[in-house]
Amino acid sequence: MAGERERRELLINVIAGLLDGIRHVAVGASSPIPAAGAMLLRARNARDGKPPVRISILGSQEHNFFTNGAVEVFDCAAQGRIDAFFLGGGQIDGAGNINLVGTGTYPQTDVRWPGSFGSAYLYHLVPRVILFREEHSPRVFVPRVDFVSAAATTPEVTRRGGPHALLTNMALFDFDRVRGGFTLRSVHPGFSAADIRSQTGFDYVEPAVVPTTPLPDAETLLLLRGRIMDELAETYPAFARSMLQAA
């Protein structure tokens, strides 16, 4: 791919596609690419006369109707009024479990991360959780997480929430909740299926022919480099500035 901006634009475009059909998406803190993807979907729906999309971006005053931060996000999720959310992790395994606590044997972890916070709760309740982690490496994508901050499936407990897809800087995977594992959907330009296999520590289903992730079309790029970056600048001014300066 041509450069950092083009790579990010591809990720934003993919996220907008993964969100298609939702009514309300919530985006956590420090998540400019997911936020931009949600904004892109909203702009497309407005352009095409489709139902409006509500976006709640924590940390934003303009794109957030919550007044009490994460507390209201949790309440809204419990009421079934959040259709999509984003989660990441220091480790993600082939069963879709995520680790936000640290590596090693808990509680004597070798590396300590910020903690699980409400990840298990939201993973359980939000129907379309998109796992998003830009780094694609065996240290992130492991056979089994060292600590389960949030479980992808709970066969013994009925739930409406769980993983929908996994997006990285190299590839896009779908998640099969019945089978409890990932399927490679597409590989981003500049990478091959062999690259993905070598950089992924867990096993997954791979189709005989692996498609290439489509690049954003010209109309999408105009939206991204205009309206979307203008809207995003309210919450993520440095990110929006870096995207525009890369032009």
In short:
This protein is α/β, with parallel strands linked by helices and 247 residues long. The chain is built from seven helices and twelve strands. It has a five-stranded mixed beta sheet with strand order 3-8-10-11-12, with helices on both faces. A three-stranded mixed beta sheet has the order 5-4-9, with no helix packed on it.
> What characteristic shape results from the CA principal axes?
globular
Order of strands, widest sheet: 3-8-10-11-12
Total helical elements: 7
The tally of beta strands, per DSSP, is: 12
Low-confidence stretches: none
The overall pLDDT, averaged over residues, is 95
The helix/strand series, from N terminus to C terminus, equals HEHEHEEEEEHEEEEEHHH
Can you give the helix content as a percent range?
Answer: 25-40%
- Which radius of gyration do the C-alpha atoms yield? 18 Å
Largest sheet: 5 strands, mixed
Q: Estimate the strand proportion.
A: 15-25%
Q: What is the CA-CA span between the terminal residues?
A: 15 Å
Determine the structural class based on helices, strands and strand pairing: alpha/beta
